[in-house]
Amino acid sequence: MPELPEVEALALDLKGRFADRALAKVHVVAFSALKTFDPPVHAVEGSFVDDVTRHGKFLDVSAGGLHLVLHLARAGWVRWRDELPTTPPRPSNKSPLAVRVELDDGTGIDVTEAGTKKSLALYVVRQPSDVPGIASLGPDPLVDDFTREALGAILTKAGRSQVKGVLRHQGTIAGIGNAYSDEILHAARMSPFKPANTIVDDELTTLHDAIGRVLGEAVDRSRGLAAADLKGEKKTNLAVHGRTGQPCPVCGDTVREVSFADSSLQYCPTCQTGGKPLADRRMSRLLK
């Protein structure tokens, strides 16, 4: 799933590619992706691109006073095309293509979504806040206002909720997903199950520093990369996420996993839980 660093890099990459270009045509290939009808999609066509920005994990292409907003969900991605086919794309259950954005010079992007569960979303709105997911976003963790005290207030309000879930909740903190929440907690040497309101004093400082460092370094590594290179860059630099059974790069202990109905988390017992494995309820049921 693209998270804050990858979406930030995509926005920067597309901002350069879209500069001085007009949106010639927006092809909605997977009709389930389109979430708005007023303004219609064709209202942005013929307008020059003013900017490409990010709101949490949402991409925002502003053109002609409107905003074409994309949320890539779990399996979406953006692919740059130096030359697009002259024939319009057709809907197909066998193709991952969801949206094609054609520029006035024949270049453009294909927005694809792998798998059978389709969650990718396209909006055309007058203001970014007209997108419900953007209107409900929590603070961006890379802005100056995201201070240690601001994080402390968030954790206190979350009560006994597990810190892993608090970090992932977009209405609480914008842009952090499953992968980077694992990475942040590993960097902070903190259990993903730790109650949020127990994180105070030095632990609060440590977690705040880890959020800024992990995300900031990922953004720095991603900046300037083309879309095609971002996935590989992310995977190469993960310490625990997606590395179940492999050695922790810090202490050498085996990275472990806790599985849920539709996701999983990875952690290092030595670095994060005092050497104790966390209970994996799904695995426990299988062993009975």
From TrEMBL:
One Pfam family matching this protein: H2TH
Keyword terms, alphabetized: DNA damage, DNA repair, DNA-binding, Glycosidase, Hydrolase, Lyase, Metal-binding, Multifunctional enzyme, Zinc, Zinc-finger
Domain of life assignment: Bacteria
Claim: DNA-binding is one of the keywords in the record: yes
Cofactors: Zn(2+)
Domain FPG-type stretches: 239-273
Catalysis performed (reactions): Hydrolysis of DNA containing ring-opened 7-methylguanine residues, releasing 2,6-diamino-4-hydroxy-5-(N-methyl)formamidopyrimidine
Alphabetical list of SMART domains matching this protein: Fapy_DNA_glyco, H2TH
Domain Formamidopyrimidine-DNA glycosylase catalytic: 2-93
SUPFAM superfamilies documented for this protein: Glucocorticoid receptor-like (DNA-binding domain), N-terminal domain of MutM-like DNA repair proteins, S13-like H2TH domain
Family recorded in the similarity comment: Belongs to the FPG family.
Name of the protein this chain belongs to: Fpg/Nei family DNA glycosylase
